[in-house]
From TrEMBL:
<feature type="domain" description="DDE">
    <location>
        <begin position="76"/>
        <end position="205"/>
    </location>
</feature>
<dbReference type="GO" id="GO:0006310">
    <property type="term" value="P:DNA recombination"/>
</dbReference>
<keyword id="KW-0815">Transposition</keyword>
<dbReference type="InterPro" id="IPR032874">
    <property type="entry name" value="DDE_dom"/>
</dbReference>
<dbReference type="InterPro" id="IPR052183">
    <property type="entry name" value="IS_Transposase"/>
</dbReference>
<keyword id="KW-0233">DNA recombination</keyword>
<protein>
    <submittedName>
        <fullName>IS6 family transposase</fullName>
    </submittedName>
</protein>
<dbReference type="Pfam" id="PF13610">
    <property type="entry name" value="DDE_Tnp_IS240"/>
</dbReference>
<dbReference type="InterPro" id="IPR047930">
    <property type="entry name" value="Transpos_IS6"/>
</dbReference>
<keyword id="KW-0238">DNA-binding</keyword>
<dbReference type="GO" id="GO:0032196">
    <property type="term" value="P:transposition"/>
</dbReference>
<dbReference type="GO" id="GO:0003677">
    <property type="term" value="F:DNA binding"/>
</dbReference>
């Protein structure tokens, strides 16, 4: 007997398993919409790339929000960094914060690289995490120090280029996606995509120092969380 479809998938022609799998493929791997279309077609599922795009828009952020609530609390050491991205021929800045374990805490796309932009990032981090870190590590951009004094004056901070490799490395998956997508079309699109992408990456990330057996257990748990988030119900 087949269980009733979850209300979030009402009026969708395809079942939850297909929709959630397409969304997972798009956010988990450096694939374009057309690549996801071909991969589904290889399984006999005829879906246009535009349909995949609509699924990603409708379900991506919702899934990401639920993943965030299920993941363990962030570490007490935050690494902050910013990189330039080109959007529609204009320079923007992608601000990102990760903890000492490599978990992405948040991202923020802004048109400025100044103290006001840095304050906005710190306030957003405090609101999402609910607690200040023990220490923050950042590069020597003066805007960070000014923002920290205003938003988190009691937090220890260290400014050194060589200490912030974890945050700098976390930008690499974004660079790969940026190339696949032939750059972001707008700041809003970049923010929406990265907000979902980073949470899916957090869920399925593999730490460097982990055994194969532990990784298989962690991966199984990640898929269980994904199925719960996506409300994928097995047939019975």
């Amino acid at each position: 007997m087949k269980n009733a479809r979850h209300p979030r998938y009402a009026r969708h022609r395809f079942p939850a398993e297909v929709i959630s799998h397409a969304v997972w493929l798009y956010f988990r791997f450096p694939l374009s919409l057309r690549m996801v279309e071909v991969m589904l077609a290889a399984r006999g599922i005829e879906v246009s790339h535009e349909t995949v795009r609509q699924w990603a828009l409708k379900f991506g952020q919702s899934f990401a929000n639920q993943i965030r609530r299920r993941l363990p609390a962030a570490g007490d050491k935050w690494h902050l960094d910013e990189v330039v991205i080109s959007i529609a021929g204009r320079k923007h800045w992608l601000w990102r914060a990760v903890d000492q374990h490599g978990i992405v805490l948040d991202t923020l796309v802004q048109s400025r690289r100044n103290a006001k932009a840095a304050k906005r990032l710190l306030r957003k981090l405090l609101k999402k995490q609910g607690i200040a870190p023990r220490v923050m590590i950042m590069d020597k951009l003066a805007s960070y120090a000014a923002a920290k004094r205003a938003v988190m004056p009691g937090v220890e901070h260290r400014q050194h280029k060589g200490l912030n490799n974890r945050a700098e490395n976390s930008h690499q998956p974004t660079r790969r996606r940026e190339r696949i997508m032939k750059r972001f079309k707008s700041a809003g699109q970049a923010q929406r995509f990265l907000s979902a992408h980073d949470q899916v990456a957090n869920l399925f990330r593999r730490p460097a120092s982990i055994t194969a057996a532990a990784h298989r257990i962690s991966r199984t748990q990640a898929f269980q969380i994904w199925n719960e988030v996506a409300e994928v119900v097995a047939d019975c």
